[in-house]
Batch of 2 targets.
Target 1
Amino acid sequence: MKIAIVGCTGRLGSNIIKNVMRRDDVSLQYAIARRGNQYVGQSMSSVAGGNCQLEIIDDICKAVECDVFIDCTNAETFMRDSLPKYKQMNKPVVIATTAFSAQDLEKIKDLAEQLPVFMEGNFSVALHDFIDTLKFAVGRISEDTDIQIVEYHHNLKLDAPSGTALMIRDALVKANHRITEDMINISSVRGGNIFGEHEVIFANCKDEVTTYKHQVSSREAFADGAIEVAKWTVKQQCGLYNMDDFCADRG
Ligand SMILES: NC(=O)c1ccc[n+]([C@@H]2O[C@H](COP(=O)([O-])OP(=O)(O)OC[C@H]3O[C@@H](n4cnc5c(N)ncnc54)[C@H](OP(=O)(O)O)[C@@H]3O)[C@@H](O)[C@H]2O)c1
């Protein structure tokens, strides 16, 4: 499977590329950066190390010979510049990018009527299983239990709360009809180079606190997840997919 990475100079994009280079079931066909980025025209090795001589380009529309795009940029550029190009290219798109508005989501749904689109704020399969555990737990909490989510990320993360924290809150609300969004407070901590931690605290009035925590210490799970998800997405019909769909197919 031939992959095009959009946002190849970024933290996630360059990690996915390093992961692709180590594998023989996928290949890197295009590395795409923002127009004006200093690395455009240079080889990918100047960003990711190693000896990848693929030249970094700056136009999605030049990526005619790939099977799938993986977008790791930001919501603003995705909506403004990239979405119309993906529509034009008519190839499956995996959206790693987060922080879309409700209005953006409608446009992404529209794109998914034309081609397979996979969108998820967190490609970690273990995180998906963590949320499944939380859904079970929240169904059993007593009425006097308060729920708090605390998320920790590096100081360069643009969005707060994280897409994953919002996803966890959504899952908790759906799993217990007594609970509404405003009953779950999310605290965001930004500091240093923390990769990503999500803590869910159930505290009741009988002096009990139960804490669930998922923590990553590198982007490996996201990079590996992005590639596995891309392999799965190219086999799907048009539509909008997420980790629930992917994990349901795991068996
Ligand atoms: N789904 C997941 O599992 C997962 C995991 C981690 C992160 N994320 C999300 O992925 C996104 C990227 O995260 P990150 O940490 O890698 O951010 P980052 O380091 O800031 O990387 C973003 C990259 O996108 C590039 N870019 C901006 N506009 C572009 C365009 N039009 N075409 C091509 N490249 C463009 C930027 O280039 P310039 O520097 O030149 O502007 C930058 O290199 C964020 O939304 C983040 O929340 C998702």
Note: The pocket of NAP is lined by residues 6-7, 9-13, 32-34, 37, 72-74, 77, 81-82, 96-99, 120-123, 222 (CB under 6 Å).
Target 2
Amino acid sequence: MKPRQTNYFSICNACKLCCCQNARPPITQNRRKQIEEYLLTQELRVDKPFETTEYVFPRETRDGFCVFFDEETRRCRVYAVKPETCVAGPITFDINLQTGKIEFYLKFERICPLAGTLKKDMVALEKHVKSAKRELLTLVGELDAEALSAILQIDEPETFKIGEALLNKGVLERLRNPRARRKGSVH
Ligand code: SF4
Ligand code: SF4
């Protein structure tokens, strides 16, 4: 399987600010299928891997760690098929309904050492931005409006804007429909 991103294990393994705790990355139907197939083919046993509130995300342990996080190796057990926001991190997104654009944000270095490394290496940053955009556009294209609206309500403090792109009209229409608007706080 072709890697979806550069591997940053050396930075993330040394990180004390684990972003796999209280992460709740959104899971589309397609992603869920891929993770379930991966668990089967890799013979990984994970009891009840997903939880659903307003959207689907990997179940959390009592300490709030993602059920796919291996606390011994400090690596993701489903790395090859991990959720789109996990590939994109430390880049996050928001949707601006007024401009019809998806906006991309980079976390501050103090909450993510990888962000600091990327900021100092423009070539690596550009490469990562490209894969993050691809993953996040796939995600917003596949999530239903209720799930996407719920995700957009989650605050992402300590980030700064690094770019934006026009959003597919279908996604905007889904978000603008009254049922989605009741649940969301998109601006
Ligand atoms: S992405 Fe950032 S916060 Fe998450 S483990 Fe890596 S360095 Fe730490
Ligand atoms: S899916 Fe993997 S990378 Fe994403 S939060 Fe869970 S353990 Fe971390």
Note: Helices lie at 9-13, 29-41, 84-88, 113-119, 122-142, 145-152, 169-176, 178-183.
